[in-house]
Model the fold of this input.
Amino acid sequence: MMHTVLTRRDTRLMSLVAAATLVAGVLRYVSAGKVVPFVASAVALALLATLVGHAVDALGDRLGSGATGVVQSALGNLPELFVCVFSLRAGLDDVVRGAIVGSILANVLLVLGLAFVFGGVKHGVQRFDVTAAKTLCLLLLLAVCTLLVPALTAALHTPAAGHEKSLSIVVSVLLLVVFALSLPAATARSSAEPHEDVVADLEHVSGWPVWFALAVLAVAGVGAAVVSEWFVHALEPAIDALGLSQAFAGLVVVAIAGNAVENVVGIQLARRNQMDYAVSVILQSPLQIALVLAPVLVLIAPLVGASFTLVLSPLLIAALAIAVLVTVIVVFDGESSWLEGTALLALYGVLAAAFWWG
Done:
């Protein structure tokens, strides 16, 4: 029966999602200024992302770790994927590039920094499985370096300049192949599995039957697609009203709204001193952005009447390189502290501020 399936927290989350989506829908068609509809759709999108994460967790609990990896990679970034697709249709290419880079920066600097701060203040120096962390960091570094090649060919005026579209397609296909080949190793890592008491603490929805999780996922997916259209519709007026650049909107606002699940879970795990799982959750997300989301956007752009390449601005290139290199250095010793977290947050703030004007 339903009352044995849903916890009080599940019911509260679904009620919030329904209410936020209804408010965002009303504001989409009622004149309410330029900023309020944007904020409402962003909140609804973040809540839908959280609901998608709960449904994915439920399927993972039922289908096993291998299936969890596949489902998470395909569905975990649905809201952000929809936002990027609608942004491409609207010609907001800078928002999409900013969202891709911003998602990586938000996870490796903002979320990881917050996890180190909250965990370090409560527990002091924390330690985690350095082998698993190194593997994730190196894969992320290699993926980001591969993503930067089309931009570098244009910036350095090489013979490949002018062929960035074809090169972006080649890079995208190869990155997706790398992701497919990395799945068995990723799902086999024991550190990526939560401890039983962590699952209980975070109130994962393992009590959901498969049919119910699939139904919630389908409804949340459709909702994310609809709200993403409202979000992008409200984005340009809000950008003009707030004086934001497309790059900053994508780098900060879209990236944070689309990664609500990892933001909350990673910090909660760090506060519970479960750093192996926290680091894995946080670093898996930017890795999936680099290996899956960015390549998929390149390949599906023609299907929505757009053209999208991986040619980034010099500042985006520098921001990505700095963030990933710093993360690798910080993580490689297998220890974290609140001071390291504070430094990561400061770097994120500086990089975000650099894009305020464009």
The radius of gyration is 20 Å. The first strand starts at residue 126 and ends at 127.
